[in-house]
Design brief:
Elements (H helix, E strand, L loop, with lengths): L12 E7 L8 H18 L4 E8 L8 H4 L10 E7 L1 H4 L12 H11 L4 E4 L4 E3 L1 H9 L6 E4 L2 E4 L9 H10 L3 E3 L11 H4 L2 H18 L2 H7 L10 E4 H6 L13 H11 L3 E4 L6 E4 L10 H10 L5 H14 L18 E5 L2
Parallel strand pairs: 1-2, 1-4, 2-3, 6-10, 7-11
Antiparallel strand pairs: 3-12, 4-9, 5-11, 6-9, 7-8
Helix pairs in contact: 9-13, 11-13
Length: about 350
């Protein structure tokens, strides 16, 4: 398969996501362009070496590849963009290939195995990163013995591509619909009414903590303190740590909850969870086809068409991992198609 080779210094951070050019989820092409343009802007502004790896899983026939439709780095840019293509022939080896055209988490494994950065951030292609988050990257003080989580803030899809990045960023800051994730002190973000009353919020936290510690096993307590909410949008750790946990479990299932299994695996092997401040967050461009936007009946219909793993199984397996300090050991040694020569298109400034 065709592959380009470019001599470049090793980046500090590899940002990995997976997608395809079929507009899945509605307005996906627009959201991907916003994502790439945002990274092009922020890597010009902040002094940190970054590569973006987009794994193009099972490209649909008759449509251009993603590198043909997404923004390209120009001469004044700093971001290297690598597109790695997983062809239909590999996709078809999975049992549910016909109903799951994109194996998102296995695609991210493809990117993890090929990442050149010392640290690897697994994320999604419909996000903007806050400037505070990039300022944090610029410090280059990430700990190889930790994994990092950032809040996800949903914003309206009325954000426009023709705005300047500064205007887009201001729009995101001022139009947060919902915030997902924990606060930096590892407690769940309380409802606004509690946030306005520090004493009540403190009492609620203490009561919940007491209940968890006295009526759950230690592994249950650890699992409860783990920030798995929307972790597929932001999980960052060293490449060595990703390899230690063997990436995401490569299950022949829809991707929901598999992202949580990744952070559970990291905690089980002794990596410390670090939750970034609320302003160091991601902004997720809302879309109606997302899991969080479905009602309970729509979710039943969704599962009727696509196989997936339930939270009960993930939760119980997670408690076992935390209690026994072990890996899932699901993946083969060549997880992420590490032994396959995949097509790569590398775009450098």
């Amino acid at each position: 398969m065709r592959k380009t080779h470019t001599i470049m210094s090793a980046p500090y951070l590899s940002i990995v996501a997976s997608s395809r050019n079929d507009n899945h989820g509605g307005d996906m092409t627009k959201r991907m362009r916003l994502f790439v343009n945002g990274l092009l802007h922020q890597t010009r502004k902040y002094k940190v070496a970054v590569e973006l790896i987009i794994v193009e899983w099972n490209p649909p026939a008759g449509r251009g590849l993603l590198h043909e439709v997404l923004p390209k780095p120009q001469s004044h840019d700093k971001l290297t963009i690598r597109y790695i293509v997983v062809p239909n022939t590999l996709h078809q080896q999975y049992r549910f290939a016909d109903v799951l055209p994109l194996y998102q988490m296995i695609g991210k494994n493809v990117g993890i195995r090929r990442a050149k950065g010392k640290f690897v951030l697994c994320t999604n292609v419909d996000l903007l990163f806050s400037n505070d988050l990039f300022a944090f990257f610029e410090q280059q003080q990430l700990d190889e013995n930790s994994f990092y989580r950032a809040n996800r803030c949903d914003i309206p899809n009325t954000i426009e591509e023709n705005w300047s990045f500064d205007k887009q960023h201001a729009f995101a800051e001022e139009n947060i619909m919902e915030r997902l994730g924990f606060a930096p002190n590892k407690t769940i973000l309380l409802a606004p009414v509690l946030e306005k009353n520090a004493l009540v919020a403190s009492i609620v936290r203490k009561l919940v903590r007491i209940k968890r510690y006295f009526f759950n096993t230690p592994s249950s307590v650890q699992l409860w303190q783990l920030d798995t909410n929307a972790c597929g949008d932001f999980t960052l750790m060293s490449k060595a740590a990703w390899e230690d946990i063997q990436g995401y479990p490569e299950l022949d299932l829809y991707s929901i909850h598999i992202d949580s299994m990744g952070v559970i695996a990291a905690l089980a092997l002794g990596y410390e969870q670090v939750i970034l401040p609320p302003t160091a967050c991601t902004y997720h461009i809302y879309h109606k086809t997302g899991w969080g936007s479905m009602n309970d009946l729509e979710k039943v219909h969704f599962w009727h068409k696509r196989p997936g793993i339930g939270w009960d199984a993930v939760h119980n397996a997670g408690k076992y991992l935390l209690a026994n300090k072990v890996r899932y050991d699901i993946n083969a040694p060549n997880w992420g198609f590490a032994d396959v020569d995949l097509q790569e298109i590398c775009l450098t400034p």
